[in-house]
Amino acid sequence: MKTLKILILWVMFWVAIPGQVYGQEHVTVTAQSGDGIYTLLRKNGAQPTPSAIAEFKALNAKALDGRDVLQAGRSYRVPSSGKTYPIFGSAYEKVVVTGNSLKGHVYYIDGGHGGPDPGSVGEFEGRQLPEDEIAYDTALRLARNLIQESATVYIIVRDDDDGIRDTETFKVDTDEYYLGGEKIVRSHTQRLRDRTRIVNRLYDENKSWAKSQQMISLHVDAYGGRVEPQIDVHFKAASRGGYALSRSLRDTMTAKYAEFQPNRVYKGGIDDSANLFVLNNSKPVAVLIELGNIRHSGDQYRLVKPANRQAIADWLRDGLLKDASGKKL
Length: 329
Ligand SMILES: [Zn+2]
What we know:
Helix content is 39%, strand content 19%. It is an alpha/beta fold. The protein has 2 domains: 23-81, LysM domain (Membrane-bound Lytic Murein Transglycosylase D, Chain A, Roll), CATH 3.10.350; 84-325, Aminopeptidase (3-Layer(aba) Sandwich). A hairpin with a 2-residue loop joins strand 6 (121-124) and strand 7 (127-130). Helix 5 packs across helix 10 (306-325) and helix 7 (240-260) crosses helix 10. The relative contact order is 0.13. The structure holds zinc ion. Zinc ion binds at residues 112-113, 119, 131, 219.
């Protein structure tokens, strides 16, 4: 009798939440020529385990019509362990969590400027190079990296039609807005206040459970002069916590440069007494990262390359992982 009860409960459990059977969500994707079930699963972040293959066949029974062959151009539903974040754009919106090192850690990722303020605008090969777009693209790449490590991530400045862009050109646009839908206003002082208020409110909401809360604000510096200096990724902090975090990030940068660019000495430093509104007034531990100099051709060349923006985002993630691992949980 008892066994029967358990059996009934067991059956009810799986019937009641069929979507949870594999703990996964589904996405609809179009098969490319050469795709098979294995490759389509892998491309969408699902391991082609026997259960995933069985689920794929069940989901697409009609399209498959008894065969295991996919037709290019046809849509299929794929079970995926990932989630969809449209903010990253169609090429990057699927995010599969691959680790849990940052579980419980909260990050406020702030691509500097935005809305009516493009930040500093450089000129590269006859085209405009707006600071806010470079910062935003790098911010999205970093945010995505952190989500993959199970972090809780808030993307403070947002743009619905600019995801992660594998492009070397950027248009100046003004449609960015704040998380929550608030408009980015013209007044510089008010902008900084709004941004800080949004972050601080979230900080208060998350304070009771978060293992750590950090704000990363991304910018590109604009040193001018007769000869613009080339400057590596560098950091600005205004608190002891911010300085410690900057050090974790800077040390990681130093190590990565030594590994991947052994002929170039990394010269990025930390300004630990930066008198900046967002650093002085934000409740999370805050660091402002300058990715380079928007006016120097060498820095421009480095920052327009999507692979380089990705590398910076990867190195920053590694620095944050290092910083988080040093915290007593
Ligand atoms: Zn800036």
